[in-house]
Amino acid sequence: MTHPLRVLIVDDHPIVRRGLIAMLENEHWVDSVTEASTFKEAMTAALSGAVDIIAMDVALPDGDGIEATSRIHSQRPDTRIMVLTMADDRATALRALRAGARGYLVKGTDPDVIVAALQTVAKGNYVFSASIGAALTAALHRTPLPMKPPLDKLTARELQITRLVASGRANNHIATSLGVSEKTIRNQLTAIFTKLGVNDRTQLALLAGNAGITPADTKPSGLSG
Description:
10 helices, two-stranded antiparallel ribbon, alpha/beta
């Protein structure tokens, strides 16, 4: 983030919208905060080009917030979207990620954490609720299965990096965790992209998520920065 950002809050509950607006208006990294209560209003606001980051509810009165996320992401890929919902399940979280969301928090999360998560997503990183992260960790500790194509092409180190990317870790954090330079991580990511036929970190994270891959050595509930 090199300049203050324009935030859109999409939720059909006025209390939720007003509470987040009150919190965000005092943040130094926020330029403006607008609100939408419906699918139609969200699409109009997001596609106007006057929004940098969105907090998106799933259950809207006239449509699905994840569908809105997908449409916005396809037309405004630079707009960062974090889903904020009552749905506390891994399937919905994965659907949101496939649609282009970079974060998934459950309502009831501490407001300060939500604000910090929005800032983290604005930086291009990923954020997950503790309960979703716990579900991913549980999946990791089930009886391991051989990696299916194309993941079977990865070396042990490449798979480790993929797991860290899937958790939302930035390159500098991955480099620190593995004791190598950030340039080395960038080079290894390029090799991973080529092996798996993906174009960027988002596609890599989705591929890993669909395979149930999560890092064993990172906290699933933490905010990534």
